[in-house]
TrEMBL record:
It holds the Pfam family Methyltransf_11. The lineage of its organism: Eukaryota, Viridiplantae, Streptophyta, Embryophyta, Tracheophyta. Gene3D superfamilies: Vaccinia Virus protein VP39 (3.40.50.150). It comes from the Eukaryota. One of its GO terms (molecular function) is S-adenosylmethionine-dependent methyltransferase activity. One of its GO terms (cellular component) is chloroplast. Coiled coil: none annotated. This is Methyltransferase type 11 domain-containing protein. Residues 31-131 form the Methyltransferase type domain. PANTHER family: METHYLTRANSFERASE (PTHR43591), OS06G0646000 PROTEIN (PTHR43591:SF99).
Amino acid sequence: MMIHDSSPRASSMQFRMAQEYFKPAEGGLLVDVSCGSGLFSRKFAKSGTYSKVVALDFSENMLRQCYDFIKADDTISEENLALVRADVSRLPFASGAVDAVHAGAALHCWPAPSNAISEICRVLRSGGVFVGTTFLRYTSSMPAIARPLRQQFMSRSNYYIEEEIEDLCMSCGLTNYTKNVQRSFIMFSAQKP
């Protein structure tokens, strides 16, 4: 069975934006939590920007798919890319050991986002960067009349509004929060003080 990564144009733009946010972490350890098929893990590893990239997911099937993609791409060095099965709320890293954490389209899937972001903050070094993307329940620019319908549609997962994501990051100990919103999609960044 052939498996395809989706939306190459959108993922390239998201990757470039993430790389900008991750400038302070260049040369360090980057962990891609909830990596899924490893699309971004592979991009980060191929960039040569980080000493090590860890593709981390709770799902064994997702990690197997990630492994298959890595094996099929002879431009990826396994020297600087590791696969780890773990829960984002219980990361297997020492406190302050990680330079950067990426969570692409993941926040809305986590059962306890505050636990996960607190754990991300714990493993980040001082000055370390967390970059996440997710879908929004609704945006500040959405007309108030359309919000109840959107909320009903999005109620099956932990979708947030822009302000809730910022509050979540700040309450978990992160600072320097920034965001980029495009329609119902948000990329945000925060740092450990």
